[in-house]
Design goal:
Elements: H1 26-37, H2 40-46, H3 48-63, E1 68-72, H4 74-91, E2 98-102, H5 120-130, E3 136-140, H6 147-157, E4 162-167, H7 173-177, E5 180-183, H8 198-217, H9 234-248, H10 252-261, H11 266-271
Parallel strand pairs: 1-2, 1-3, 3-4, 4-5
Helix pairs in contact: 2-8, 3-8, 4-8, 5-6, 9-10
Length: 272
């Protein structure tokens, strides 16, 4: 029997090692998943040249006053929103410097709204609504076929300084549509088509690199220290105190006093 086209996609293909999965013991399931997960970092390493280009494009965009717009659907969209939401407390940037858009809106962060990814015009409208000069649009889709994400990237192509794709399919429409395609070929999942597994892990690793490396290159750290973090709770205030202590050699009480005088800005406390 001829296979359906959708089954030929990398993210839909079956993993031969997982045939008969329902008969596996718990330990066998876990070992297989762990072994498959262990292949993800090497797949990301293969994509480093493209990731490097993407980081440099983001750094240039931010320096020119631009922003980073992540647009995705399902797991991919949620991961984009997650990465965007963690930039302000980690690097002290404005809430909209990294902007996450997910098909179906905020409701899709908690509930599956699978049909939302099929609306390409909605993706275009959602990106166009927030797109500004010098922005970078990052389309995130493991399969690279989600119409919503393609619509968002198309909207970005008309006004963004760069368009970037994060996908696991090198021949997908998304990979072809982006100026900088980041393709992480993780192979078939343990559960065929469940791209929240290896593909999701790969996507998270790439997003970690894009935002972290871009912020480091933009001067938002001192060495490996988060000197622009926002110490909004006890744990982060303790971290801020440790950073000031380590960088200045002063006692904890003096570091706290210095931070209090600086409005709990680590950067300003270190400049005193």
């Amino acid at each position: 029997m001829e296979r359906k086209v959708s089954e030929e996609r990398g993210t839909e293909a079956r993993n031969e090692r997982a045939r008969g999965l329902e008969s596996f013991t718990t330990r066998q399931i876990l070992e297989l998943m762990n072994e498959e997960d262990a292949t993800v970092p090497s797949a990301v390493r293969e994509a480093l040249p493209a990731i490097e280009k993407a980081v440099d494009a983001i750094v240039d965009a931010i320096a020119a006053g631009g922003h980073v717009i992540y647009v995705g659907a399902g797991t991919s969209g949620r991961l984009g929103v997650l990465d965007a939401s963690e930039a302000p407390p980690t690097f002290g940037v404005e809430p909209d410097l990294f902007h996450g858009i997910v098909a179906g809106g905020d409701a899709a962060l908690r509930s599956s709204i699978e049909g939302a990814e099929d609306d390409g015009s909605a993706g275009g409208r959602d990106v166009a609504r927030v797109l500004r000069p010098n922005d970078v649009v990052v389309g995130i889709s493991a399969s690279g076929h989600a119409p919503y994400v393609l619509g968002g990237l198309k909207a970005g192509a008309g006004g963004a300084s760069a368009t970037i794709a994060i996908t696991c399919d090198p021949v997908s429409p998304l990979a072809r549509a982006a100026r900088i395609p980041i393709v992480v070929d993780v192979g078939p999942e343990v559960l065929a088509g469940s791209s929240r597994l290896k593909a999701g892990t790969a996507t998270k690793l790439v997003l970690n690199m894009l935002s972290t490396a871009a912020m480091i290159r933009s001067g938002r750290t001192r060495g490996d220290l988060m000197i622009d973090l926002r110490p909004t709770n006890a744990k982060l205030r303790a971290r801020a105190i440790r950073i000031v202590q380590e960088e200045t050699g002063i006692e904890e009480s003096e570091a706290r006093a210095r931070l209090e005088r600086a409005g709990w800005s680590v950067r300003r406390a270190l400049e005193r």
